[in-house]
Specification:
This protein has 196 residues and is mainly β. The chain has three helices and 13 strands. Helices cover 11% and strands 33% of the residues. The strands form two sheets. Strands 4-3-2-1-10-11-12 form a seven-stranded mixed sheet. The protein has a six-stranded mixed sheet with strand order 5-6-7-9-8-13, with no helix packed on it.
Length: 196
């Protein structure tokens, strides 16, 4: 199974619609996970034309910085825990990566958002920085932002994919470029700590 990962789209603040490259890149995925700060839910409608969508509710949907509060939507919850090929895949807007003791610990977030089962994988957003790393035994993936990477002005950012096969998950981050996407260059970054 291939899952498209996206977060922090900030539409229409960043631009009226997502880059076309995102939709082309997600063609053929089985599912799309949006890790919050969608801002306006027509983005989910657009993504749903490509594949089924689950989204985390971020602070951008709850009226932060004077934005309108977005309505309830069955595709949107503060946290999802999906069973995909035997793996528990969690989706929420924010988790403490990296951890900042004593309060900002992964175990506290898991207890709060996923009390029914400890996820094997958590997909999150909020930081606008792409990351793939293990935290407290959980495979954590942040696809970054396609529109506001690192909180910079509107520009090409990143998306991700999560490939799940035989009970194993492998994430990848992709840079949006003028004519599509290309693998993000992780040169020099150890595989257990891949933060953008």
């Amino acid at each position: 199974m291939r899952i498209g990962l996206i977060a922090d789209t900030h539409i229409p603040e960043a631009r009226p619609r997502l880059w076309d490259q995102v939709f082309h890149a997600f063609e053929g995925v089985d599912l799309i996970l949006h890790a919050g700060d969608v801002h306006e839910f027509h983005v989910l409608d657009d993504l749903e034309r490509v594949a089924p969508v689950y989204a985390a509710r971020g602070n951008g949907e709850d009226g932060s910085a004077g934005r309108p509060v977005q309505p309830e939507d069955p595709r949107v919850k503060y946290a999802w825990l999906l069973d995909i090929e035997g793996l528990g895949i969690g989706l929420t807007h924010y988790v403490p990566v990296p951890e900042r003791p004593p309060n900002m610990l992964m175990s506290r977030w898991v207890e709060r958002f996923f009390p029914e089962r400890r996820p094997d994988v958590i997909v999150s957003g909020d930081t606008h920085r792409h990351a793939i790393e293990w935290v407290d035994g959980i495979y954590c993936v942040n696809p970054g932002s396609p529109t506001y990477p690192h909180h910079y002005d509107t520009q090409f950012g990143t998306i991700g994919f999560l490939d799940v096969e035989n009970g194993r998950a492998e994430a990848s981050i992709w840079q949006i470029v003028e004519d599509g996407i290309e693998p993000f260059d992780w040169e020099g970054v150890p595989p257990w700590k891949r933060r953008g």
